[in-house]
Structures are given as structure tokens and as C-alpha cells.
Amino acid sequence: MGEVLVGARIMLGQRVRLVGLLSDQSFNGKLGRTVKFRSDKQRFLVALDDGCTKSCAPKNLEPAAPQPVPERISTDGFDFSNGRAPLRDDKNDSFFPCAVDWDPRTDHDLRGYVAMEKYDGIRAMWEGPRGGFRTRGGDQANKNLIVPSASFARLLPSDLRLDGELWSQRGAFEEASRFRSGGGDPEERWAPMIYKVFDAPSVPGPFVSRLAAAEATLCALAQAALAGGEPRRVHVAQTAACEDLATAIALRTRVESFGGEGLVLRRAGSFFRPGKAADSRDVLKFKTWHDSEARVVAWVPGKESLWVETVENGTLFKVSAGQRTWLARGAVITYKYNGVGAVDGGPRFPSILKVHDAGCECDACGKAASERWPVSATWRLAPSGASLERVGERSGERLVCMLGLRAASLAE
Question: Is the residue at 193 inside a domain?
Fold first, then answer.
């Protein structure tokens, strides 16, 4: 099921920090990931970021949120659009309660809230009587609902509407979106999919009552499916009480230590309210954001977005320019992002925070002015400007040196 919000303190595959070691105090504070558990000794083997390994008791480990630097992974066949559709005026938002960002100025009092993991998948409303999924990215009226495979449909109620996320696993948004491609065997396309349910809009009453009704209905369907040898792939998302900021931060760190995106905080007594309203604080997104600098390489042809390269290693990625139509090649920006994509290594959900002024004396602007900005040795902008290509991909071309790559990628 992939639930990690509550339960065992430390688990396999979790990002951790070493703490409280007495005999090897030099290891305290180091970061790594748990890769093995020895039940005979009740100790985890941790692969540390510096390449070493260390055996630790669970009491000497605590969940740690990653602080990644984007680095493009050399993955063939990926479109490097960060796995996201372009920004749009989404008419289907009127069907879904949309979360607003947690704001420390207004959301400091969390009494009455519960936390759920924020899943990185496809938001989808199960329209029980119509036998299909409505998505935020579908046509305006969703006249053509997405119909799941027969085995998946048997796990869903015919008399209940459900709100949730079609999901595969953490960091696998691209895989989760492939079920919409059509063609081929529906059972094969839907095989990796899981539906994480976090509301039942057709049930009257407050949020916790709606969730309990969904749980009761889905459990009955799951028992029938399990009796027929089918796996359970529809779950009500796990919840945990979260009535103060310290608890919210601890739960968020735990989710992020497994590669999760963050939390959604929901008011337990709230009623179903579709749409996005800034004055409604019933549903809050609670995520960790990182920021860094990048330099503009080019505009994406026909789009309101830019190709930029990171200050750390020259990773290329797209970011929306918004209303900044005046931005030109060479401009330095500060952007924020929520972790890195597991498929391509680029930043997730990047957005521009500010544009650096001419004459700025920060390190990034110093690199740009002195031509010391790093360039990716693996990927560069394709001649069309719409996508990336692997270095050396063009016929008869060889990578000679980093300066040659810079000239090729920035040539007029």
C-alpha cells in the first residue's frame, strides 16, 4: 500500500540521519538511506551519502528530508517537461476541492486538522453511477470519462462518488500518467495503478464521516476481490492527527524521507466544498520547498516558458515565465522547487521567485559574468529549441571540451 504516515519509526528505503552514537561520534549528523535490516541483531545497514556504510540500531536513526540539487539523469526517451502539463485555465477545478498553500501567517492554529500524504499522481473523481473517472486534465465537461480495466472497476462502487489520486509509487508521476495513453491491453496499462481515496463527496456529513463511509464500502468490495484472487488496489489514504506545527513538520519529514511530496492537511469537520478559494482553509498543502539559481538559455518556441540551466551542474529544465515576457538569454533567476524527479532528475514543480538585477554581486551572477557557469556534459538544447538531445547525438559530432559544448548550446 505504500503507507508511511504512521507506524514503525524507521523502515527500509528511508532517508535517515545518524544521531546519538557514542562510540563513533564522528558519524553523528551524517545522512544516508536504510538498505538492509538484520533481524537477528535488530540493526539497520545504512548506505551513507559519502559512500560508506554503517550498522545502526533504530534508536540512532531519525527520518531526514532530502535537500536535493537538481541533476539531470541520462534517461533516453524522456521529454524533459518535468512530467507536467502546461499551465491552463482548468474548467474541471469546479468539481474538485483544491488545496491552497499552508501560510504560517494564517494557518498557525492547526487544531481540528488531520494529515494525509500528498500523492504525486493524477487527481481523479470516480463517478460511480457513470462507471468512469473524471480528471482535472480532461475535456471541460468530461463527457468521455476514463474507463478503468475490468479488474480495476470491480474494486470500485457503482453507487458512490469518490475523490482521490490515481497513483503508482513515489516519484513515478510519469508512470502513473501512462494509463491515459490508450491502446494496448487495458489490464496491462492499469496493472501498476493504485487509487488513493481521500474523500466521498456523495456522502453527507463532515470529512471524517465521509472517509469512514468510503472505507466501509471499499473494504466490502476488496474482500470480494481478494476471494477471487485479485489484489487490493483501491485504498482510503491513511490519516494522522495533526493539530500543531511540530507534529505537521515531523509527519512531513517522515513522508519526505521516503521520497514523498509532502502532506495535505484537512479540517476534520469540514464539508465537501469544490473549487479553489483562498478564503477556505479546509484543505492545505504542506510541502518543503528548496530554492536555487539558474540562468536563462532560451525561450521554448510558442510557449510561455523558458529553458534554464542550474548553477550547480548545468542541468537543463523548463520553467514557466509567467508575465515576464522581457526575460532574455543570460538572465539569472532564483527558482523554487519541491525535490527532484525520480525519472529524469530535474526539479519538480519549479517556479521563478525573482529575477536578479543587473550588477547583482551574488555568486551565481558572478559565474554568469565570468563565463564560469557549468554546462551539462550529457544533454543540450536541440536545434528546434523545443526539446533536449543527448550530447554527440547529431551525426558526426563529438564532444571535444566543455567550451565547445558551451558554444554549441549558446550559439546565436
Answer: yes
The residue written with cell numbers 495503478 in the block is: 193
Residue 307 shares a structural domain with residue 265:
no
Q: How far apart are CA 2 and CA 379, in angstroms?
A: 33
Asked whether residue 83 is domain-assigned, the answer is no
> Is the domain of 157 the same as that of 230?
yes
For the beta sheet containing 132-135, the strands, ordered from the edge strand earlier in sequence to the opposite edge, are 132-135, 122-127, 161-167, 194-199, 234-236
Q: Give the pairing type, strands 316-320 and 132-135.
A: unpaired
Pick the last residue of a domain from 286, 307, 327. Answer: 286
Total number of domains constituting the chain:
3
Task: State residue 337 phi and psi, 5-degree precision.
Answer: -155, 160
Tally of CB atoms within 10 A around 212: 14
Full domain range(s) for residue 345: 290-410
List the pLDDT tens digit at each of the 412 positions of the chain.
567 777 668 999 899 999 999 988 999 999 999 999 999 999 999 999 889 999 999 999 999 987 777 777 766 655 666 544 333 444 455 678 888 889 988 898 999 999 999 998 889 999 998 999 998 765 545 567 889 999 999 999 999 999 999 998 887 777 777 777 667 788 988 988 999 999 999 999 999 999 999 999 999 888 887 777 778 899 999 999 999 999 999 999 999 998 888 999 999 999 998 876 556 889 999 999 889 999 999 999 989 999 999 999 899 999 999 889 899 999 999 999 988 876 677 888 899 999 999 889 899 999 998 888 998 888 889 999 988 888 865 544 433 333 333 333 333 3
Based on the fold, state whether residues 174 and 224 are members of the same structural domain: yes
Residue 113 and residue 242 in one domain: yes
